[in-house]
Amino acid sequence: MNIKSLYNLSNGMYIISTKYENHFAGCIVNTVTQATPEERPKLIVIVNKENDTAMTMQKSKIVNISILSKDADMLLIGKFGFRSSKDFDKLEGTEYILGKNNVPVITEKSVSYIECNIINEIDCSTHIIFILEATNAEVLNEEEVMTYEYYHKVVKGKTPPKASSYNG
After folding, report:
1. Into which CATH architecture does domain 3-153 fall?
2. Residue of 15, 85, 159, 163 with fewest CB within 10 Å of its CB?
């Protein structure tokens, strides 16, 4: 199988954030999908099981999604994509607000955000598929969103080993 064919799937670049008790966790993901259109839409986000963010999401049952703009830089992407929340304070020096759910929402280089409750999860081998229900969403600006293709072709970004699209 030619795994490169999967690179042609259309994905964006997102920072997801969660909090359980006093522990904040957040990471970059490229797999967020709207599943239903009703008043409180359902979404899907996929996170590596070994990621501190996934483990914190399982405890908290809440997550916020920040949709990155094309001008998100590698400092921000690197902070959330290549470092662990267990070992590093990702909020330090990062622009954010508290969402209505009391979880930080990353506003730096983001075009919009969605606050969600986690309503189900599905084990998917190395990753967990979280099924979410949106509870609040806001548009921050009208900038263009960063796609995963743009991240690879223009920004020349790398894929970390825990990403769903990683190809050793």
Report:
1. Roll (2.30)
2. 159
Cα–Cα distance, 108 to 72 (Å, whole number): 8
Confidence of residue 13 (pLDDT cuts 50, 70, 90): very high
CB atoms within 10 A of CB 144: 10
Q: Write down the H helix ranges in the chain.
A: 52-60, 74-81, 148-153
Per the DSSP assignment, residues forming a β-bridge with 98 are 104
User: Cα–Cα distance between 158 and 99 in angstroms, integer?
Assistant: 30
What average pLDDT does this structure show over 93-115?
Answer: 98
> Residue 4's pLDDT is what?
65
Question: Which of the residue ranges 6-20, 62-76, 133-147, 151-165 would you say has the lowest mean pLDDT?
Answer: 151-165
